[in-house]
């Protein structure tokens, strides 16, 4: 089983935490030689070792295995969607081409000014990453609108009802990332934390400005 995995991802995760191998060994209860051997793929971890290392890195063992999985190169042709598979209420399907990669999807959107893309049936339990290549786009997520221009990117929960409307004709790429990829969840949590911190800071500044000298 383990010959399908590359455990050097543990080294990348350890370094992102700012830890040395000695520190990871101490936090996980695994010996230093074992950490070194696993990180360099010189030795395969037992399930006990895997549990200990993933716990220290704040991941589940299954999430760590998912990140360590050796991916065979996959080439997929983006294909138009068969419109008869979707019920009424979905719009802009004819403007899409989709490539499927396991649970993920990469979608090319090319549409004219005024055209709307609203195809929630394509979404499963995923995050969505969008990169605008050209044109001008209004992305409505729930009750909020976001104006996006070329080279703008946005990451959000793809399960929330959303729609793209082209203000100017253009093209964009969206990627559906399964939510069981823990690193994306960590990134989103970090973003939410930064936003909350910024809001608190702005409120504090506003309050201090109102306080009479």
Write a structural description:
The protein is α+β, with helices and mostly antiparallel strands and 213 residues long. It folds into two domains: 2-68, lambda repressor-like DNA-binding domains (434 Repressor (Amino-terminal Domain)); 79-178, Jelly Rolls (Sandwich). Helix content is 33%, strand content 29%. The chain has helices spanning 9-16, 21-28, 32-39, 47-56, 61-68, 182-210; strands spanning 79-80, 96-101, 104-111, 116-117, 126-141, 144-148, 153-157, 162-178. Strands 1, 2, 3, 4, 5, 6, 7 and 8 form an eight-stranded antiparallel β-sheet that branches. The longest helix has 29 residues, at 182-210. The chain starts with 8 loop residues before the first helix and ends with a helix.
What's the short story on this structure?
By secondary structure, the protein is of the alpha+beta class. It has helices at residues 9-16, 21-28, 32-39, 47-56, 61-68, 182-210, and strands at 79-80, 96-101, 104-111, 116-117, 126-141, 144-148, 153-157, 162-178. The radius of gyration is 22 Å and the shape is extended.
